[in-house]
Amino acid sequence: MMRKNDVFRLGLSLCILIASYSCQDDEYEDNSFNKYYNANLNMVGQAFIQNVESTPAWETQWATVEKAGNPHPNEVFCVYSPSHGTFTVLPVLEGEEITHVVFYPMTENSEPLIIDGDTEDYPEYVRGFFQAQCYATWEEHQLKVDRKLKTFVYNDSIVPAMRMANPSPYFLPADIWVSFTYYYNATWTNLYVCRAEIGKHVENGLIIAKRSFPNVLFDFPGTTHNVDLIVQNVATYEIASETAIKFLDIAMNHVRTLNYVQRVWAVYCWTPPSGGASGGYYGGFSNGGSGKDSGKGDDLASEYEERFCPVCHKRMSECTCAISFRIEVSPNNEVELAKHYDISVYIGGEMRSEVANVFIEMTKTKYPNHWVRIGGGQPLHYTYKQTMMAFNPGEWVVQVGFQLKSDPTIGYSTSTTKFKVLYPHVDDFKNDPIVVSFFEDLWTKCVSFAESHQSTHEVREFGAFVFLNPDGSYSCTEVEPGPIVALDHAGAHGTISASTGDYEYPSYWNDPFRQKPLIVGTMHTHYPATWAAEGIHFPVGPSKKDIEFAQKIPGLVYDYTNKIKAGDAADNPENPLKIWDYGVKRRVLED
Amino acid sequence: MKTLLFIAMILMAIPGMAQQKKTVNVDSLSEKKRTEYLTKVAEKVVKHFGPGYYRKIRPLVIDKITITPQDTISPPYMKREFMGRTYYRVRFPYDENYEFFPLGYAAEVIIWADTGIAYSVVFGNEFGVVDINNPKIYNDSRYIMQYEWQPPETRELYKLIHR
Ligand SMILES: [Zn+2]
Ligand SMILES: [Zn+2]
Question: Which ligand is nearest to the CA of A314?
């Protein structure tokens, strides 16, 4: 009984729907556009059609598009290049193949541009789009792209290996292309926001990369030029090229953290160091790191040959599994903060050539299954590499997601790999000029306090936390000074304490791209004995309280070299001040 | 000059309540007598300034030290005032299965070789008092060190000090 009722109700609502559609038909009269209302549009397609519809004179434009073939609004995406602009791209198919691409420039009153493989007079941005293989998104969706379109390359931006003045800076320009999802409610304002955010991420990515490679100079990409890298102080052009590629990998990985970004490419506009691609154009890509090896496939092949399957333990190339992934972190499984590391994925098994894409995901072992995707792309020689910047200490685990050519569903590797990102060693910062000068300032305060309280023999300790900043520099943040104590009895001593929790930057600790300054150590002063009550003697260096607190975090204390007694000069060349380190050598990993 | 001043001060102290009223040239004593003398003085000092640190393990560990520029034992303040002078360092061993002292001993008393007068006491916690024969200090209860027990395991903690 119930079932019959439901069917009846459904029939009724369908009638109402049909009625409302015919209403719209009347409004727009007989235009071919309306067939998309009935088409199977996804969210992207709907958003795109709505936008097209809101453009003046869209009907004639759309008619031209339809003349070219069968437009696929569901496959629309946006693409941004600092030097070429922002476009919405619409593929137009003839049968199963994309034969035309419509470029909608994201500028006021701009006309869409329809491109096909036979077009002769197309602008540079079109060449760049194809040169950068932005169309790969469509291929991933099993759409064929006309071979003639795919052979479009830059006209004028092929830059020869250019050596600048001595000693050895090399000029290595790159062109950046970022494709991103056409917003579901893609108003122009939203797209402008995305473009601005991507631009900012490109900038920040370059700044982050600079931390690993201080010898690389770069221009912020403006609206008229691409990213020009200048690599200094390297011996050979090969190293310069490799440096630039790593640099771009790091920068592009940062851009990839935006959740609406689909793919990021940096096209290397320089000629290969030696024996690479012919024709004077490198055509490399920084696409999550896999591109960096495109000029040296042989190296990659031999590297691959040396790997063994973690499941069947045979060579990756002879692996008898259906599909297997070996994940390695290099240079080793203990990575220092503010240093870069590579995650390499080697694909083995009988189906290895079926893998279209791999994705690298990370989470801390403390947050099991909170996987964060950090990148991905097409493997090269069954290998995929990604360069990362370590700035989130903890124990991490890596897993690999993959798509087969025949199946876009993402599967996951059973094998995972763990590695640690370590806090810096105390020796890395105890003599840092910033730390030393901060200590000198704290000591000045300490002495002036003691001197001005000499009648009561009072002293207090001054302290700070040592931070490591994302740019690799150290800084110090002073904490509340310790309690005032009178050095007027045997055993009198000062103390100081502060909680890391009160000074730590709050932010998500499972973010592989976390970029907040980190507390790496504590620092505090002791005090002079100069104005202590007559006869008082005390030891120097870390106290019992100090070392108790330093079981999880390295401590530095500014104190005399040798024991002191009341009346000893505050500044005594025979007993100089020094920075003592104590406690653990590195902050203990807790997150 | 400094030495003279110091001796003058001690002389001035003699009429007061100071513990040692007369001087003894420790070096001139026979070894047996010297050990007896140093032990007696050190015991008296520890019982007075830090009774909680007094331990009965014998013999005490006695070293003779002359303050020289190369000397790495004497603190800078002793080198500054008493260069060339000789003293005996008398240290009190303790039961390491019962407690721990970062000093390595329960107490350490420094006694001048030429006068036999105690100059300083440092306790197991490394805090101490100098110029202890000065009646102003000897008679002031604020210079008495309180004892605090530290279990033997504390030794492990102190390994975190990288000397
Ligand atoms: Zn296998
Ligand atoms: Zn301290």
Answer: 1
